[in-house]
Design goal:
By secondary structure, the protein is an alpha/beta fold. The protein contains 15 helices and 16 strands. The strands form four sheets. A seven-stranded mixed β-sheet has the order 6-12-11-10-9-7-8, sandwiched between helices. A four-stranded mixed β-sheet has the order 3-4-5-15. It has a three-stranded antiparallel β-sheet with strand order 13-14-16, with helices on both faces. The protein is globular and about 65 Å long. Helix content is about 40%, strand content about 15%. It has two domains: about 5-110 and about 375-480, Aspartate Aminotransferase, domain 1 (Alpha-Beta Complex), CATH 3.90.1150.10; about 120-375, Aspartate Aminotransferase, domain 2 (3-Layer(aba) Sandwich), CATH 3.40.640.10.
Length: about 500
């Protein structure tokens, strides 16, 4: 078993950082091992569970397929054999239209560190709706209180421009960086997700894939976007140097815990080195904290690592999971690019959004952050993540499975197929891609039938609401799924099954 590396920071929600080298070795072993999934009989049983217990969701999904592309509006709703129609969320649980209850490890994609639909926030939102309504199009004091509170937790965010989503926050960050530096190139880390705007749909999920998922995007939109492998500081330096020959780099975009919320782990010390490289080449360092802000502690990843980025992108966390929320913040000097009205035409970086900084999102965000700080929610969620990861690791090892689990506080990874860790250098890549992707859907279906909702069967977010009792109950459910996995010889030495 590979032990996490102790790196506790006061006020943070991470008790230890995973052993990066050990995680990478285990993941290499996982993708070199034949698929170990639940047997056909077990999968048939899980599908039968859906047939018996989720007919309402099936009817909703069938109707959705008639009017919605692919039958879902959000990628996180994808599920086999059909998406679940969720009608209630509270704390650590979700309920579907058929009355089934699920332990919620999706947590709206990450922002509900307090747990879903927290009453202290909901009451304030209801008051606002009664008195003001959700949108006025005018200034509201809550947007000022929220911006100040974010600055108090993240001193590097001297000014904050609220927008409608994390995708918009990235768009604005890139535009501000180009306006401020006068440079055009942008560098991102391979495998990272920074939203779906044209300039960053490059090198998604599997490092090195470039424009593989850029359908509908003109090639010219990506000419100034560059990708470097996770943790490859030499390649980053080389790319920065090469860009100097054609005008220089405006921004380096980073998911602080590693691409895809730590799916591709990085070393904590890398960030100081990236900071130095950005300074040396006159590029702005942009932290995409859509997931990590407030979840890793009230100071976010930048507080944990002790590295101050030039710009910080925030997403739905800034409204505690309520909709139409995101934005970008940074130093007063860089954020000045967004100042001005009609007379500033041609002198500023244009951003907009009719619903940006609406009263509903700002009131929800302010009170969610206050409550998270008051209760110590990030640390409580992190301890729940530790307990979940430790329990998964023990059960994986006991059953001799090659699966890899590790956590970064309340961000828990459980890799069973290893599809996102396939290598582009593997001549059999595309032969493996389909079956390993299919396995994610199968595992997700199995977990749901056992009463748990995850992110694609491979990532789990814990919250303050995930008590020891809830985690232990979930571990028993996970173990029932693991017990259905077909036995196989893992090969010489066997797998460790634990990444951190």
């Amino acid at each position: 078993m590979n032990a996490p590396v102790s790196r506790a920071v006061a006020g943070a929600a991470i008790s230890a950082w995973p052993d990066v080298d050990a995680v990478r070795r285990d993941l290499d072993r996982l993708v070199a091992t034949p698929l170990r999934r639940p047997g056909d009989a077990a999968l048939a049983g899980y599908r039968a569970w859906y047939e018996r217990n989720a007919p309402g969701s099936r009817a909703t999904a069938a109707e959705a397929a008639r009017y919605i592309p692919g039958g879902v509006q959000h990628n996180l709703a994808l599920n086999e054999p059909w998406p679940l129609d969720i009608v209630r969320a509270e704390g650590a649980y979700l309920w579907d239209v058929d009355g089934n209850r699920y332990t919620d490890f999706l947590q709206a994609g990450g922002p509900t560190v307090l747990g879903s639909n927290h009453p202290a926030v909901r009451e304030r939102v209801v008051e606002l709706l009664a008195d003001c309504g959700p949108v006025t199009g005018m200034l509201h004091s809550a947007e000022v209180r929220l911006a100040k509170l974010i600055h108090d937790f993240m001193p590097g965010v001297q000014r904050f421009r609220m927008l409608g989503s994390g995708t918009e926050g990235v768009m604005a960050a890139v535009r501000a960086a180009r306006a401020h530096t006068g440079k055009a190139h942008v560098i991102k880390i391979g495998g990272a997700y920074h939203g779906w705007s044209d300039q960053v749909v490059y090198g998604l999920r599997i490092p090195g894939t470039g424009g593989l998922e850029a359908a509908g995007i003109p090639p010219g939109a990506l000419e100034l976007t560059h990708e470097v492998p996770p943790g490859d500081l030499d390649r980053l330096r080389e790319t920065l140097a090469a860009n100097e020959e054609s005008g220089g780099t405006a921004a380096v975009l980073v998911e602080p815990v590693g691409p895809e919320s730590g799916t591709h782990l990085v070393r904590p010390e890398d960030h100081a080195a990236v900071r130095e490289l950005c300074d040396a080449f006159g590029a702005l360092l942009v932290f995409d904290e859509v997931v990590t802000a407030f979840r890793l502690g009230m100071g976010g990843a930048q507080g944990y690592f002790g590295v101050r980025p030039d710009l910080t992108v925030l997403g739905k966390c800034v409204a505690g999971g309520y909709p139409a929320a995101g934005g970008v913040g940074g130093s007063a000097e860089v954020m000045a690019a967004f100042e001005g009205g009609l007379t500033a035409a041609g002198k500023r970086a244009l951003v907009g959004g009719t619903l940006s900084a609406n009263p509903l999102s700002c009131v929800a965000g302010y009170h969610a952050l206050v409550e998270m700080d008051r209760t110590g929610a990030p640390a409580l969620a992190g301890r729940a993540g530790d307990r979940l990861r430790a329990g998964l690791a023990a059960r994986i090892a006991a059953r001799g499975l090659p699966y890899v689990t590790y956590n970064i506080g309340s961000i828990v990874h459980l890799h069973t197929s290893g599809v996102l860790h396939l290598s582009l250098d593997d001549p059999e890549l595309f032969d493996k891609l389909g079956p390993r992707t299919d396995m994610l859907g199968q595992m997700s279906m199995a977990y749901s039938a056992e009463g748990m909702v995850t992110i694609a069967g491979s990532r789990l977010y814990t919250s303050m609401a995930h008590t020891d009792e809830i985690i232990d109950d979930a571990l028993a459910r996970f173990d029932r799924v693991l017990a259905t996995v077909d036995p196989a010889d893992p090969g010489p030495g066997g797998p460790s099954g634990v990444g951190g």
